[in-house]
Write a structure and sequence with these properties.
CATH superfamily of the largest domain: PPM-type phosphatase domain
Structural class: alpha+beta
CATH architecture of the largest domain: 4-Layer Sandwich
CATH class of the largest domain: Alpha Beta
Largest sheet: 5 strands, antiparallel
Distance between the termini: 75 Å
Number of domains: 3
Radius of gyration: 36 Å
Length: 536
Amino acid sequence: MNRKRYLVMVIGLAALYYGAAKLGLSLAFETPSVTAVWAPTGISLAALVLFGLRLWPGVALGALLANAWTGVPLLAVLGITAGNTLEALVGAYLLTRLTSFNPKLDRVADVAWLVLLGAILSTTVSATAGTLSLLAAGEIGGGDFGSTWRTWWLGDMGGDLVVAPALMVAVTHWPFRRVPRRLIEAAALSLLLAVTVAFCFTRETPITFLMVPLAVVAALRFRQPGAVVATLLTAAIAIPLTEDMQGPFADYAGDDRLILAQLFVGTISLTGLALAAVVSERQRAEEAIRGLSTTLQESLLPAELPPIRGIETAVHFSPAGEGGIVGGDFYEVAENTDGSIGITIGDALGKGAIAAADTALARYTIRAAALRESRPSRILGLLNEAMLGQSADHPCTAVYARLDRNAGGAFLTASIGGHPKPLILRTDGTVEPVGSPAPPLGIRPDIGLGDFRAQLAPGDALVLYTDGLTDAYAPARLVGPGEIAAALRPYGGAGAAQILEAARRTASPPPDGRPPRDDMLLLVVRLAGGDREPAG
């Protein structure tokens, strides 16, 4: 920071402090130097937190000028000035040097630190120094020490709860990106809150609770900017009306009624800031989960299908929900060491981390089992044992198919555990389901897994899918195996990508545009040869 800019900032802070101090002192009752409304505390704390402790001379100059005209002796003015300056330095030091305080106030911890170290602790410095100075100068008697200290402390606390957050949020959240898209909503909410505050503070009946829901909505909808605007609106209307002896606190003495009004405003501020911080933390957690989900999903699914001589493959995967929340669908096509081709598709039931763990277990168990087992039913049997060993509460469905190439094409052997039956699409458009499924894996030890066999000719395709294809839009839209078969028939002999697209189109979303309720995975494995154009 160059010297000229530093000087401008010090003078600007002093001027702002002085102007706010004159306004606050105009509300003093029992003692001309003590008021229940003291915005300069919040101004000085925010300035030192945001721009550095080096600005303390601006606080000292503003406090000196503000108190020099109150009529108290010079010694008391100097003591009050020292207390005000030290208060700001202590508060800013505690927040910025001893904690991880962020002036964006988007964490609950930040709000708590502001309240504990700023509003409650640092304000005792000014209250104590100022009250002792007045006592030493003979401006107050010993019997008035307690009430004077209390008024001073609560007035400064209000500045840290109302003014400091507003300045911190204004600087750290600019530009307010959430507001331009909802200007009408923001304006309407502000107007409604202003009318409600004016209504509540022009009646002696204690109905101030009516404005609390509006302040809550402001914090939830517009986060920290909404919370501080709601607080400032409440303060700008409630405090002048209270000073004019209107509203629910009108029957109290001058300083007491202003203290009560400011405590009410401080409560509104604390409530709004805490709610906004909770929402912000939840949003960050959801964003982190979405990022983790994407990373997990990418690590659990092959980046691309490997090229295999004589085999054409195509795959489509679309996760359900916003942000690609991790589901349990998994697949793999790999060439085994004996030259056969292993095809896996499955669905670990559930979402999130549990589904991710089950998916990883299923994929790697099948991969390891295929190294020493040739029968698909035995491979799925080993997966069943692994799932039972982990937990009986997380079943999964799976198909493992093995292709052994021969002179006539390939011999297919498949085993199914609770999964939708794969379909064979012949080059002539005939669609044949493969086998019948046993119960899902991971439920009980003996589930009666079997092996089902078929011969595939060149151009024939094996179509595998998870239940997301059939019920992603249930109950509004259900896709039966017959509908899928009908969609595939014209594509006998077509390329794997064309077959895949024909199957995918059967799960078109309903007219209401609702998102899918389940992940959708489609896998097509086609033997090369027998190519022809789709019928129709």
